Amino acid sequence: MEQGRAREEVRPPYGVAAAVPAPAARVPEQARGEHTHGEHPHGQPSAAPRVQVHRHSVRGQILDALRAALVDGELVPGQVYSAPALGARFGVSATPVREAMQQLAAEGAVEVVPNRGFRVAERGPRELAELAEVRALIEVPVMLRLARTVPPARWCALRPLADATVAAAAVGDRAGYAEADRAFHGAVLALAGNRSLVAVADDLHRRAQWPLVDNPVSRRADLLADASEHTALLDALIAQDAAVVQSLVRAHFTVADG
Questions:
Q1: pTM of the entire structure?
Q2: Letter string b/e over residues 204-242, b meaning 16 or more CB atoms within 10 A of that residue's CB
């Protein structure tokens, strides 16, 4: 981040006191390029997004907000968003937005459009299936090995993480579910003691959560079904039922993207 921006903070929504925490960010879907349909004709933003501050770094806050907007489908596949337009909505300069977008470009979520901004990647079912296949090749053997070696007490400690996915799914919180989902899988894989494995799997998992061009957001029913598999898997791991664990793990990566 450029010097002079480090202490820059995301402003709360207009009309909301700074002491009152705001909900997660919501980036307007209409933002396109440097001049957007969602902007006021005189250059003022049509609405300020709601941003909940989780990090000291403004860039980190914006990155979290943009990732949530991707999962929620508020950043629409194929559309172009400019850093100045998004910065106006977040109440910050274009610099932290541009830096966060560059990180998303490195991850493959967006692509740079010279002199315009960033286009959200357009993905189809084939790419999602390829990601699921690679994740299965990495995670399934590890989970099956852990099922044979990790004692039930350590699996019980992961219960709150599984419950968090169920809670987020129950209210249709896609962004919250995405974080809880990755946290659960990450905690499971962390039991293998291989940090590189966890990092690679988390990157693949995050990519699998981005919306498809023809199906921008996950349905609540899909989230609930996916979350129930986490609970069932944890129950089988605690019971040390290897047959059920194997069936659930393989099915999870065959029919689900989380």
A1: 0.72
A2: ebbbbbbbbeeebebeeebbbebbebbebbbbbbbeeee
